[in-house]
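Question: Send over one sample?
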Amino acid sequence: MPHFALILPAAGKSTRFGGPRNKVLEFLGPQRVMVHAMAPFLARTDLARVQIACADPAELMPMLPTDPRIHCCTGGPSRAHSVLEALKKVPDDVQWIAVHDAARPLISAELIDQTLKAAEQYGAAVPALAVTLTIKQAHGPLPAPVERTIPRHSLWAMQTPQIMRRTALLDAFARCPIPLEQVTDDVQLLELAGHAVWLVPGEERNLKVTTAVDMVLAEWWTKQPLPS
């Protein structure tokens, strides 16, 4: 696999988490959530750069590991804006981009490997889990009448890292037909530009910390033995 850059969008306000600061700066055991999220990537020799898009780079850098590959820049008003700002900082000779949620602290080395290999084969790859809940469509806020039940056999919940060619992501940003604040995940940009995106099996353990309950679950996962 050619060298790749990791982008961590971390400029959000964590309003659903309910804490006094960004959830990615909370501690999960002895380390911050964001540090857990980047650790398996930093262990790789094919990682060329970590580019973090955050609210205040000067404040964040002292909280991070000392590694010359780690860089920070100011993010934007939405996730897609932050990814674009980080992408602009990635050197031109880096061919591949992995965008990972800074709030996914339990990513495994195996899942990174699997997604990288699929991206190299197909051009873009994302880990995903089958949707197990019944999904109803309705216009909220609730209470509201059900409009239809959406068949779930073809529905998949996205995880990260989302890995793609740098040139494809740049092209997708340049041709995005909708406002960037309406983009809900990174490979949606590629889909809108006509690029193929492939899904690979995700991991239940690779959860995203969104609420305080998710942090409790993440702490529970850290105490479980890893699959052999």
In short: The helical segments are 33-42, 57-60, 79-89, 109-122, 166-174, 186-192, 212-222. The chain has one domain: 4-126+160-198. The first strand starts at residue 4 and ends at 10. The two ends are 25 Å apart (CA to CA).
